[in-house]
Amino acid sequence: MAQQIATNVHWHEGTASREERHKNLGQKGCTLWTTGLSGSGKSTVAVALEQVLIQNGKHAYRLDGDNIRHGLNKNLGFSAEDRAENIRRIGEVSKLFADSGMIVINAFISPYRADRDIVRQLHEEAGLPFLEVFVDAPLEVAEERDPKGLYKKARAGEIKGFTGIDDPYEAPEHAEIHLKTHEMSVEDSVRAIVEALESRGLLSA
Amino acid sequence: MAQQIATNVHWHEGTASREERHKNLGQKGCTLWTTGLSGSGKSTVAVALEQVLIQNGKHAYRLDGDNIRHGLNKNLGFSAEDRAENIRRIGEVSKLFADSGMIVINAFISPYRADRDIVRQLHEEAGLPFLEVFVDAPLEVAEERDPKGLYKKARAGEIKGFTGIDDPYEAPEHAEIHLKTHEMSVEDSVRAIVEALESRGLLSA
């Protein structure tokens, strides 16, 4: 109880502002939205980026299938409607995290341009930075990696509507960051994102 | 660009842990769930608490009708099913914020014990602190305050299913914090919550 805030509570009219929250954190909240094929390297880059930011005293949080599909979005399936609602909810939660001051790092295939653009617009309307990160590996490279064995199942017809096989992946046309993960190391990818954050002044407040 | 993290990116295998995130923030993430009648003082207490925490260098974020009903939950109505889903989603988002290291402060009537208990259980299963804050004002006091004119409309039959009038409010039986806002100042209420946070070691990491 080093702080002992309770013994010295002073309150005045008014609401804490976004600027105060972000200043306290020494950064500006924003959303980094990785998008790419299964096996393109989204999760690897997201995990490494989070680690580097946190080791440098910054505040980041990852949203991914593990903490979203089994929680907030556990009542959604894989119909076209549910896939859109999946991304919409993740977009809304990202906006809340960015508003709070966190650097939120998403790792979802998010194959449809229209869905990603809705999330971008949500952020722009709220005055919060949204950086689309195209994690770009050729299909043959992603399929060769096949870390979860999903391409094999999709090719065998055991999974239907699999992105890149029998469902389209719509590549970003104006991504803020473009990572060719079959030509770049993980450190190179992380560096490119950190440079994008620094050049926009997002790692200070 | 004081930091220049990009020039010195070092990455090794492994994922940043909750403990690292929370240590960076100098606090432990947790959820403060205020519950009470419309007009009981939930928002007033939540706003004041956020302000006091932030002025003391802590990191807090409020979820309330303004940023939830028009965003994440804008596709929900007021049927029994939708009300339960409303609280479920807020609970899942709170859990994510607490996991990230934030002190998340909710201000929703959340009248049903079963819904609140589901959110408590979500947190307990994830090993994250959940503090229920009963913002307790007698109905006649809340109705007299009627800050949004909603009781008047409910009494006139213009709003149906209004908590305290023609829909039940199920008071918490084991709230961690009990605030009788008709007998306590806003500063007293904030102090009681901060003491609860400090006594549990949540304001240090």
Which labels suit this protein?
homodimer; 205 residues; alpha/beta; five-stranded parallel sheet; 5 strands; 44% helix
Mean pLDDT of chain A: 95
Radius of gyration of chain A, taken over Cα atoms and rounded to an integer in Å: 19 Å
Contiguous low-pLDDT stretches of chain A (5 residues minimum) are: none
Question: What share of the residues of chain A does DSSP label as strand, in percent?
Answer: 5-15%
Helix segment count of chain A?
8
Shape, principal axes of CA atoms of chain A: globular
* Largest interchain contact: A-B, 59 and 59 residues
The H-and-E topology of chain A, N to C, reads as HEHEHHEHEHHEH
Structural class by sheet pairing and helices of chain A: alpha/beta
Strand arrangement in the largest pleated sheet of chain A: 2-3-1-4-5
Cα end-to-end separation of chain A: 28 Å
Percent helix of chain A: 40-55%
- The oligomeric state is homodimer
Major sheet of chain A: 5 strands, parallel
Number of strands of chain A: 5
Task: Give the topology.
Two copies of one chain form a homodimer.
Chain A: H1 18-25, E1 30-35, H2 42-55, E2 60-64, H3 65-72, H4 80-100, E3 103-107, H5 113-125, E4 130-136, H6 139-145, H7 150-155, E5 177-180, H8 186-199
Helix pairs in contact in A: 2-8, 4-5
Describe the structure.
The structure is a homodimer of 205-residue chains. With 205 residues, chain A is of the alpha/beta class. Helices cover 44% and strands 13% of the residues of chain A. Chain A contains 8 helices and 5 strands, in the order H-E-H-E-H-H-E-H-E-H-H-E-H. The first copy, chain A, has a 5-stranded parallel beta sheet with strand order 2-3-1-4-5. The two termini of chain A are 28 Å apart. The mean pLDDT of chain A is 95. The interface between A and B is large, with 59 and 59 residues.
